[in-house]
Amino acid sequence: MDTPRFRDPQTRIDDLADEPILVACPRCSRCASVTPERLTCAGCALVRFPPDPDYRAWNRPVDPFFREPLWLRADCCGGHTLWAFHVSHLDLIERFVAATLRERGLGDRPGLTLVARLPSWMTMAKHRDEVLRTIAKLRTTLS
User: Fold this and answer.
1) What is the pLDDT of residue 1?
2) pLDDT reading at 10 higher than 80
3) Is the separation of the CB atoms in 32 and 80 below 8 Å?
């Protein structure tokens, strides 16, 4: 039996802004997308531009540009919030949590990677099943 192995790809949280971030539309509450330049919702045709381009709200369950609630967020493990910016972020968390062998990278600043900064409640073996169930639940909101 193969042991699920994870090697840290050295992704930092701000690298995740390279693709649209999924948020709850402030007008219609459906799934909308955010880039550093704009918030757009295909459901209600909302288009907004960032209020303060110098402010970034990283490491919270809101998008870093408009501070709208993330689409991919759910309660998990006794009052914590599991959140992801988009499917790629969710995939990275899932691969890390599911792995029984986790290898950290040796990049120029290894302690600053996304997986190195995941909260301990999310990385504990005793929470693995609940975190993976919550990720599966979040994936159902994408269809």
Assistant:
1) 46
2) yes
3) no
Question: Residue 99 in contact with residue 8, Cβ under 8 Å?
Answer: no
Q: Tell me whether strands 5-7 and 101-103 are parallel, antiparallel or unpaired.
A: parallel
**C-beta of residue 50 within 8 angstroms of C-beta of residue 62:** no
Q: Of residues 110 and 86, which shows the higher confidence score?
A: 86
Dihedral class, residue 84 (left if φ above 0, else alpha if ψ from -120 to 50, else beta): beta
Q: 117-131 b/e with 16+ CB inside 10 Å = b?
A: eeeebbbeeebeebb
Q: How many residues does the chain have?
A: 143
Distance CA 84, CA 63 (A): 10
Query: 75 in helix, strand or coil?
Result: strand
